[in-house]
Design goal:
2 copies of one chain form a homodimer. The first copy, chain A, has 468 residues and is an alpha/beta fold. Helices cover 36% and strands 22% of the residues of chain A. Chain A is built from 15 helices and 18 strands. In chain A, strands 1, 2, 3, 4, 5, 15, 16, 17 and 18 form a 9-stranded mixed β-sheet that branches. In chain A, strands 6, 7, 8, 9 and 10 form a 5-stranded parallel β-sheet that branches. Chain A has a 4-stranded parallel β-sheet with strand order 11-12-13-14. In chain A, a hairpin with a 2-residue loop joins strand 2 and strand 3. In chain A, helix 4 packs parallel to helix 5. The longest helix of chain A is centred in the N-terminal third of the chain and has 16 residues. The radius of gyration of chain A is 22 Å and the shape is globular. The interface between A and B is large, with 64 and 64 residues.
Chain lengths: 468, 468
C-alpha cells in the first residue's frame, strides 16, 4: 500500500515548501506541489496539516555500548576519561544488544533515521558482538553503519611521549585485524537490510600505517565507509608531530586514506591547511559539539570548514562523553557554539544550514547520499514527521528555527525508515521501550573503586600536557 | 496536613544523602536520617524510592514576554537582534499574562521554583502590564521576582559611537522612572504571596548615573534585589570605555550600585579586576550560556569567577535569545562550556557544583537565600522531586551526573513551592497547559517585513564593530 502525505511543509534543500509526498514500498515515489496528488482507495492518507516533514538526520558518530556508562565517567579530558571508560566497558553480549537498541531509540525519537556506530567489540568475540549489535539495530529497524573499532598499537601510543608509559597489552597485529574485518564484512554487510559495515580504525594515534592503509584498501575494494577519530585533542596533535613530523591529515593523505568515503570524527585541532586538504578529497568531518565540551577537547573550526567547502555533519558521540544521545541537542549546540569564534554574523550557521548538515551532509558522511538525506522522487523513504502543535514548537513563528534553536521534546510524531513505519504518534512500533528500561534499571554501575588504567597514566598526562 | 517524604536521596550542600523530609505548611519542618521520622495518620506519605529531591532551581535572568518571539528573531549579535526584538515586542496585556504563564510552566517543568523576570513593561501602561505578569505568576504558583526594565537614555546610547545614530524616542527622565518604581513597589511587592519587585535598570549603557544611583537607593531602602545587564557584549565594553574611561564595574562600584543584593546578567566581558571587585561586594553573576552563544556574545569567564569566590547562578535569558526556557539545558551547557577555556580538569565545574550554583547560588542572586535554595529545617518548601526510573535517568549510575550532563525529559515528578504542590506526577496542578497552547497556536507571527530599527543601525554596527 502506498502512503500519501498531503500538503505538508517539507524541508527541500534549504527552505520549506508545501508539498504532497507519495511513499511506495521502500521509496519516495513522487514529490509534487501541495494538493496535486490524488487520494485513491489504495493509498493510506496522512494529513500534513500542522506538521513538518524532514529527511531523517544521520548521527555521524557514536559508540553504542557506552549507553551503559552514561552518567558514570568523571569530569576528565579524553585521554584520562578513556582509561576509566576501558575499566568499565561492558563485557556481556546482552549489553551490546541493549546498547544498540537504546542508541537506536534515542536516535529515532530525536529525528534520526541512520547512525554510525564506531563500535567497541569484545576482543576474541568479535563475531558474537557484531551479531548482538546487528540484532539490536534490526529489531528497532534503524539504518545502521557499524564500523568496529580496531587498532594495532597499545593504549600508551595515544599519549605524547607515550613510550614512557607502561605499554600494557598489545592488540593483534594489522594483518590479523584486517583478516577479521574481511570476515565481518562477508558476514554482516547487508545493504538490502539497512545494515552496513564500515572500516573503523580508532585513529592514527593508535594505528600503524599498515593498518590504516589496509583499511583504505578494504574500503576501496568493497566501497565501504572509512571512519575514524581525527585530532580530537591537543595531545593527539602532539602525537602526530612526534611520530610523523607533519600534520596527521597530510600523513593520512600520503597513505591514501582520504576519499569521499572517509568520515572523520572531531577534527578539533585541524589547521586551515588540513581543512583545504580534507575539502579537496570530498571527505566529511563529523562535529560532536557536546562531547568536545564535556571532555574539554576544544572548539572545532567548523565555520572555517564550511567556508572551505568541507562537508560537515553532526554526531552525538558515545554516551560516556555525551550523557545523552539526542541529535537535536547536538545540532542546536553545533549551530550556536561557533558564533563566539567569528563576530561576523553573516558567517554564522543558520537553522536551515544546520538541517542540511544533519540530513544531506550526514548522508554523505556515511556514503549514502545517493539513497537518503533528501526528500525527492527515487530516494529511500527515511523520513521524520514532526508535530508543530506541541508546546515546544509554539508559538507559530519559524518552525525550522524552533526545531533547531528551541528544545523540542516529544515532537517526533511519525518515522519511516526504508519505507517502514517505525514510530507512530510518538510511540515506537518495533520495540517496547519499557522492556529496555527494565533492563537498564536492573543493572547498577558505580564508579570503579579500582582505577588501574587511570592510576597508571594520570601523573604522566599532567606532566606532559599541563606543565609544558 | 503535613507531608512526609520517606527515605529519599536528597541533595545536601554538595552531595547526596538518604533522608526523611517533613513538610509543614509553607516550610520544611524537619530533615532527618532516612527511616527515622514516624508515619502518623495526619501525614501524607510520599515514598522516596527511586526518587531524587533537590531544592528548586532559580532561573536568575529571563524576559517573560519574549515567549511570543520564540523562533522569530534571526541570527544576529545582541545590538542588531535587539532592534528586531523591539520591532516585534508584544503590546497586548493578554500576551504578558500568557508570557508569564508559559515561562513559569517551562521553569517548573525543568526543575525551577523561582525566576527573575527582567520584564519589559508597556510604556504608559506599566501598572496594567505588571498586573498581568503578577496574575500569570500567581496562577501558576511560582515564586517570582519581577524587575521592570527601565532606562532613561535612548536605544542609540547602547552602541559605541552611538551619538552618530538617529537618537529615536527619548525615554522618561530618571526621576519619573524612579517615581514609577516607587509606585510599582507599593502596589506589587508582596513577599507573603511569593511575589517580589526588583530594581531593573536595563544596564549602564542605557542608563544615566542618576537612574543607576536612584535604583540603588530604592534597593537599599526597601531591601530589594538590584538586577541589571552587565557587559554582555564587546560593544558594551567599548561604550564603557568611551563614556567612563574606566571599567563599567568600577564605575558601578563608585556609584554605590554593588552589594549582596545586586545580580548582574552575563558579564561576558568582565576582567579579572572586575571579578575581584564584584566578589568583594557579595554580588551575583548570572550566567546565561545558551543566550551568550545564540547571540555570539562570547564566553563568560565563569571558571575565573568561581575561583575568585564570586557567586554565580544560571539563567535562561528570554525566549528571543534562547528559543527554549529549560533550566536543565542552561545548567548542562554552563557546566561543560568552560572546559575549553582551562585545560586543567581540576578546575572544571562538576555536576555537584553546578547544582549548588543553580540552587543556593540562585537563591543568593535573588536575595532569598535565607528562605530558599537548601533543604533544611526552617527553610521554605520550594522542592522538586525527580523520577529516577525515567528512561533519560538510566542506567543507574550517578543520578546527579545524569541530571546535569544527560538530557532529562519529563523527569520532574512533584514540585512544591511555598509548600504548595504545583506539579503532581509530572502534571501541572494549578493551570491547564492545553489552554496556554491553544492561545499560543492562535497567534501567528512572521518576521517583520518592515525592520525600521534594524535598517537604521546595521551599517553603523558593521562599521564600528566589524571593521576596527
Amino acid at each position: 500500500m502506498q502512503t500519501l502525505i498531503q500538503s505538508v511543509l517539507a524541508f527541500q534543500n534549504t527552505s520549506l515548501e508545501s508539498v504532497d509526498v507519495l511513499l511506495d514500498g521502500q521509496q519516495i515515489h513522487t514529490v509534487a506541489p501541495a494538493g496535486t496528488l490524488p487520494t485513491t482507495p489504495d493509498r493510506q492518507i496522512i494529513s500534513g496539516q500542522d506538521k513538518l516533514l524532514l529527511p531523517g538526520f544521520v548521527n555521524g558518530h557514536t559508540h553504542s555500548s557506552q549507553v551503559w556508562q552514561r552518567g558514570l565517567i568523571p569530569q576528565l579530558p579524553l585521554e584520562l576519561w578513556l582509561a576509566d571508560v576501558f575499566d568499565s566497558t561492558p563485557q556481556q553480549l546482552e549489553q551490546f544488544y541493549w546498547g544498540a537498541v537504546s542508541t537506536a531509540i534515542d536516535t529515532v525519537l530525536s529525528g534520526g533515521t541512520c547512525l554510525m556506530d564506531h563500535a567497541y567489540v569484545i576482543p576474541g568475540r568479535e563475531i558474537e558482538t557484531m551479531d548482538a549489535l546487528v540484532r539490536g539495530y534490526r529489531s528497532v529497524g534503524i539504518r545502521a553503519v557499524i564500523a568496529p573499532l580496531i587498532q594495532d598499537m597499545p593504549f600508551a601510543a595515544g599519549f605524547p611521549s607515550g613510550c614512557l608509559l607502561p605499554q600494557g597489552t598489545s592488540p593483534k597485529p594489522a594483518e590479523q585485524q584486517l583478516a577479521l574485518m574481511e570476515a565481518l564484512i562477508a558476514e554482516f554487510h547487508d545493504p538490502d537490510q539497512g545494515i552496513y559495515i564500515g572500516l573503523g580504525p580508532t585513529g592514527f594515534h593508535r594505528c600503524s600505517d599498515a593498518l590504516l592503509q589496509g583499511c583504505a584498501e578494504l574500503s576501496d575494494r568493497h566501497q565501504l565507509c572509512y571512519h575514524m577519530h581525527l585530532l580530537e585533542t591537543r595531545a593527539q596533535h602532539r602525537v602526530a608531530q612526534e611520530r610523523y613530523g607533519m600534520s596527521a591529515v597530510q600523513h593520512l593523505s600520503n597513505l591514501g586514506c582520504l576519499s569521499s568515503r572517509t568520515s572523520l570524527a572531531h577534527g578539533v585541532w585541524i589547521s586551515d591547511n588540513d581543512i583545504a586538504l580534507l575539502a579537496s578529497t570530498g571527505a566529511t568531518l563529523v562535529h560532536n559539539p557536546v562531547s568536545n565540551l564535556r571532555l574539554g577537547s576544544g572548539l572545532a573550526p567548523i565555520l572555517n570548514c564550511l567556508q572551505a567547502g568541507l562537508n560537515v555533519s553532526f554526531g552525538c558521540d558515545g554516551a560516556a562523553s555525551n550523557d545523552a544521545q539526542n541529535l537535536l541537542e547536538a545540532i542546536k549546540l553545533g549551530t550556536i557554539l561557533h558564533r563566539i569564534s567569528d563576530s561576523d554574523y553573516e558567517n554564522w550557521i543558520t537553522p536551515e544550514q544546520a538541517l542540511a548538515m544533519a540530513t544531506v551532509g550526514g548522508a554523505k558522511g556515511v556514503h549514502l547520499s545517493d539513497r537518503i538525506g533528501t526528500i525527492a522522487s527515487g530516494m529511500e523513504a527515511d523520513l521524520v514527521l514532526y508535530n508543530l502543535n506541541h508546546a515546544s514548537m509554539l508559538p507559530r513563528t519559524n518552525p525550522l528555527q524552533l526545531l533547531v534553536l528551541g528544545r523540542p521534546t516529544e515532537v517526533v510524531e511519525t518515522v519511516w525508515i526504508r519505507g517502514q513505519k517505525i514510530v507512530n504518534q510518538g510511540q515506537m512500533l518495533t520495540v517496547n521501550p519499557n522492556i529496555l528500561n527494565q533492563v537498564l534499571q536492573q543493572r547498577i554501575s558505580t564508579p570503579e573503586q579500582k582505577r588501574s588504567a587511570y592510576d597508571n597514566i594520570e601523573s604522566h598526562y599532567r606532566k606532559v600536557m599541563l606543565k609544558p
